[in-house]
Design brief:
With 312 residues, this protein is of the alpha/beta class. The protein has a single domain, classed as 4-Layer Sandwich (Metallo-beta-lactamase, Chain A), CATH 3.60.15.
Length: 312
């Protein structure tokens, strides 16, 4: 089965690690500058990532919130700055259970839940509601836990995603990815609490948002790519039935990793023939530079408030 094609996908970066209100429009990116804001823009950056995704097919447009950054203060402030209205959302989806991706959600719901549709689905993976930790040199740091019961008290219909799942015509969540690509190991420092034991995190529930742009190929929207961005792209092609990867946007989780791992990813992007690469958040400066040097025509720089548009 092949994922239905859509006419247009736009991804607005509501939260990312950096903001540059002086950056000009380029390639597929439209920037939120002070000229567009008609005043000095007050967009906020923080360690986290949040996407606002609009998928258009014919006269219909589906609007999806995919992750919410670290804090409600930054997320809700940037929504207002960008003029994005929560009342228009058709679904909420979370990539994985780290706080820098769901931390802004509770504040967002407190601030705007009444304006949203009453029957609003929330899609998340099977392990998204477990306590998370980082552990380095014997020092354990708690990364928080998303409260499923609180989401249900807010009137959200929580739907646990294990298999590829349609969100709207032409857009889907990846479901669980059980195979990883060679060389893409998960850092041993990342832990999860299961049944009272703190163990290695596998991120088995990690979700990728996938859309199919007519005549172009897949737009793969990721957030941290803990299970490996190469494997994620291959999985997206497999479950969608569309072999061509048109664009990849999100965090590639290469920060702090060595040159060999970065080269593996850049080489694979070239082999896949990706048209547009938009590295964000946890990709890391070394990987930003490597992609920019080796795939300069394909790379597009991210900045909070940018909208990346892919269309037939």
């Amino acid at each position: 089965m092949t994922l239905e094609a859509v006419d247009r996908v736009s991804v607005t970066t509501v939260v990312d690690n950096s903001v540059d209100i002086l950056r000009a429009d380029e390639k597929v990116a439209r920037r939120w500058t002070s000229t567009r804001a008609r005043r000095f823009s007050t967009l906020r950056a923080e360690h986290g990532l949040a996407h606002w995704v609009e998928v258009t097919r014919g006269r219909e447009t589906a609007r999806l919130a995919f992750d919410w950054g670290l804090t409600g203060e930054a997320y809700t402030h940037n929504l207002r700055e960008l003029g994005l209205d929560p009342a228009g959302l058709d679904a909420l989806a979370l990539s994985h259970g780290h706080q820098d991706h769901w931390g802004g959600l509770p504040g967002f719901l407190r601030d705007g839940r009444r304006a949203m549709k009453s029957a609003l689905p929330f899609y998340g993976g099977s392990d998204h509601f477990l306590p998370r930790y980082s552990e380095l040199k014997g020092e354990r740091v708690y990364f928080g836990r998303l409260d499923r019961e609180e989401l249900e008290r807010q009137g959200l219909e929580v739907r646990v995603v294990t298999t590829p799942t349609a969100l709207a015509e032409g857009v889907m969540l990846s479901g669980e990815m059980h195979e990883t690509a060679p060389g893409e190991t998960i850092p041993a420092s990342l832990k999860v609490e299961r049944d009272g034991d703190v163990v290695q995190d596998t991120f088995i529930g990690e979700q990728t948002l996938i859309a199919h742009v007519r005549g172009r190929g897949l737009v793969v929207v990721t957030s941290c790519s803990h299970r490996g961005i190469v494997g994620i792209c291959r999985h997206a092609a497999r479950v969608s039935g569309v072999p061509k990867i048109h664009a990849v946007i999100g965090g590639f989780h290469l920060s702090g990793l060595g040159e060999e791992r970065i080269s593996l990813v850049v080489d694979e992007f070239r082999r896949l023939g990706v048209d547009w690469l938009i590295p964000q958040h946890c990709t890391g400066m070394e990987a930003f530079i490597a992609i920019g040097n080796r795939l300069p025509a394909e790379m597009v720089v991210s900045s909070v408030g940018s909208t990346f548009t892919f269309e037939a």
